[in-house]
Write a structure and sequence with these properties.
Length: 498
């Protein structure tokens, strides 16, 4: 039984604590590792290492930082296969999906490779007589990331490449359910030439989280997870004066109009609902069938869902793997049952699925539920599993009202051949990320990712321009260099541009 330790100051360490947590292989249902759980002293040690490293790293030239970023990019790119295998073994997603996750993380690394361009300031020559004004941005100090189980490579890479490229040092607290990828990435940073202490990994549970939120030497916290925890993170960290970007949960809708290509829409709805076993904050979990699209769409969706090949992530034939834990499987199957009890119609039922040779795995099959009401638990709860709930609507405007009434505002999509309907939709929905005939509208790394309403706490989205802004703060300098012989007494009046 391997023990996964912290990464602090450029090396692994078991830390001071004695608590351990199991790490399972979701496809087999068996424990494969144990991970150490940090105590407050371990977080203190990681922050101390990061604070010491900040003194040098914050003064490193842009050229040095960029060289290391490019080295890191090359190393990650060379180890996509190994990272995908680690993710598949601990999260459960199929290898192709895991490799895709790493590639999307790499896009943020590539964005961060352009940091000299991104940190360029502004300059106003002769703003006043003999006076110049210029601005630049500086790193904050030690910053932290608290990340979820569903993307153990990509979501941390939304944070640490940008933070480090901007001159900060970083403490990562990944999910204890699939922790190994973070240590692998830490070693890639070391091999890229990053100085010891600039990137640290502390494994743990709420003890570690609270120690991060309360630590006086941490300047900012980034978080991705559920809405209740995002609200908690934001409240507790801002109370100690930290910057916070806390991305919460989602209930992502896709509306399907009668003029849409229903085969095309059903293909992409199935991929968006069942890919990664539905364990994505951008998964489509609610389809809104408008008017006459409903019945024919349901026939196609039922066929597509039944055709999905479910199996262990390492099997190249598998299109969908297990969910992450036995508790997740139990919760998802319970919500399907509750939906049935509340009057919804289960068209494709993924409960009780057994995969031959992996009977103890945490598998839930693709599930399609029709005639879902907006007061039902399968609609109001973030299921985070391979369950697609279908709501019926009379019109585009009614569908927009339905989406806007939902407390979440992460992502949404429309399937239509009408440019007018698409434009009305994109302007009318109160959601941060919108897809038009694109079911999972995750923006490219040079844009910023984030939702509205209960899907975001804080005022900055992650990566892209807002990520650079989040991890830096601006200085404006007003300078005058007078001739000594021309210098004379200062005016007591308020300065003006004259």
């Amino acid at each position: 039984m391997t023990t996964i330790e912290h990464w602090i100051g450029g090396t692994t360490t078991g830390g001071t604590g004695t608590r351990r947590a199991p790490v399972y292989n979701p496809a087999t249902g068996r424990q494969q590792h144990e991970v150490v759980l940090a105590e407050k002293a371990d977080v203190d040690a990681a922050v101390a290492a990061a604070k010491t490293a900040f003194a040098e790293w914050s003064q490193a030239s842009l050229s040095k930082r960029t060289k290391i970023m490019f080295n890191f990019r090359e190393l990650v790119n060379a180890h996509v296969k190994e990272l995908a295998e680690i993710v598949s073994d601990e999260h459960g997603k199929v290898l192709s999906d895991a490799a895709g996750e790493v590639q999307r993380g790499l896009e943020v690394v590539e964005f961060a490779c352009g940091i000299p361009q991104l940190l360029k300031g502004e300059y106003s020559d002769q703003a006043s007589t003999g006076v110049d004004v210029f601005s630049f941005r500086e790193p904050l100090g030690v910053v932290a990331g608290i990340t979820p189980f569903n993307f153990p490579v990509m979501v941390p890479m939304w944070m640490h490449p940008v933070a480090i490229a901007c001159g900060n040092t970083f403490v990562l607290k990944p999910s204890e359910r699939d922790p190994s990828a973070s240590n692998f990435v830490a070693d890639l940073w070391r091999r890229a030439g990053l100085p010891d202490g600039v990137f640290n990994v502390v494994h743990g549970d709420k003890v570690a989280v609270d120690a991060i939120l309360d630590h006086p030497d941490i300047a900012a916290v980034s978080f991705v997870g559920s809405t209740p925890i995002a609200r908690y993170i934001h409240g507790r960290a801002t109370a100690t004066g930290k910057r916070v970007q806390a991305l919460g949960g989602a209930k992502n809708h896709a509306i399907i109009l009668p003029d849409a290509d229903l085969e095309f829409a059903a293909d992409h709805l199935s991929a968006a609902a069942f890919g990664s076993a539905g364990e994505r904050c951008m998964a489509i979990s609610a389809a809104v069938a408008v008017g006459g699209a409903g019945d024919p769409l349901m026939d196609i969706l039922a066929r597509k869902a039944a055709d999905v090949v479910v199996g262990p992530g390492r099997d190249p034939r598998s299109e969908m793997g297990p969910v992450v834990t036995a508790a997740a499987k139990e919760r998802i199957e319970g919500l399907i049952g509750t939906g049935e009890q509340q009057g919804a119609k289960v068209l494709v039922d993924g409960r009780g699925l057994k995969v031959p040779g992996h009977e103890d795995g945490f598998f839930v099959g693709p599930t399609v539920i029709d005639q879902v009401g907006t007061d039902m638990d399968v609609y109001t709860e973030e299921i985070f599993g391979p369950v697609l709930s279908v709501v019926r609507s009379d019109s585009v405007d009614a569908a927009i009202e339905l989406i806007n009434a939902n407390p979440y505002g992460n992502g949404t999509a429309i399937f239509t051949s009408s440019g007018e309907a698409a434009r009305r939709f994109q302007r009318g929905v109160n959601v941060g990320m919108i897809g038009i005939n694109v079911p999972i509208p995750v923006p490219m790394a040079y844009y910023s990712f984030g939702g509205w309403k209960d899907s975001l706490f804080g005022d900055k989205h992650v990566h892209g321009p807002e990520g650079v802004s989040f991890y830096t703060r601006g200085k404006v300098v007003t300078a005058r260099w007078p001739h000594v012989e021309a210098a004379h007494g200062a005016s007591l009046h308020f300065p003006t541009a004259s």
